[in-house]
Design a protein that fits this description.
Layout lengths: L1 H20 L4 H24 L4 H30 L4 H28 L1 H29 L10 H4 L1
Length: 160
């Protein structure tokens, strides 16, 4: 989902660039933006359902919906600019809409990050436990091979 949100941000930036250099390509970019947002909306459903609590889940949904409204406005501005590519006011409106969409993407990412704090803590803990297990496996391997035996006659196998 983060990858899709970042793709939206990239497409929005390209739309700003094309608004001044090649407005004819705005339709293709608007289509790309629409597809990326559709994918993000689909990915947001399970993310909201699996969030730590209901409040975070509804926050994710709300931020994604706000992003959708912003994307719709941006696509509308792109269409208007394609109709009159030399209109400076329409270019300014498109740039302002793009700025708002970029801001809303950052809000979505922040909401996702808030929802993933518990998940990230579990990943960190699992990584630490995995490292400890690997260390234990290495120690067992050396002990079984006899390289950690004391000078007396006891072996690791006796204690195992």
């Amino acid at each position: 989902m983060v990858k899709t949100a970042k793709a939206i941000a990239v497409t929005v930036q390209e739309m700003v660039t094309k608004s001044t250099t090649n407005p004819d390509e705005l339709g293709i970019l608007a289509n790309q933006l629409t597809n990326d947002y559709g994918q993000l909306a689909q990915e947001a459903k399970p993310a909201a359902l699996t969030a730590e609590n209901e409040e975070i889940g509804s926050h994710i949904k709300r931020r994604v919906q706000e992003l959708g409204h912003g994307c719709a406005a941006l696509v509308t501005k792109a269409g208007a600019l394609q109709c009159s590519p030399s209109d400076a006011y329409t270019k300014k409106e498109l740039i302002e809409s793009a700025r708002k969409v970029s801001e809303k993407v950052s809000h979505v990412l922040a909401a996702l990050q808030a929802g993933n704090r518990g998940t990230q803590a579990c990943i960190t803990a699992a990584s630490a436990v995995s490292g400890i297990i690997a260390d234990l496996d290495t120690t067992i391997m050396f002990a079984t091979a006899g390289t950690l035996n004391q000078e007396n006659s006891e072996t690791f196998a006796d204690h195992r």
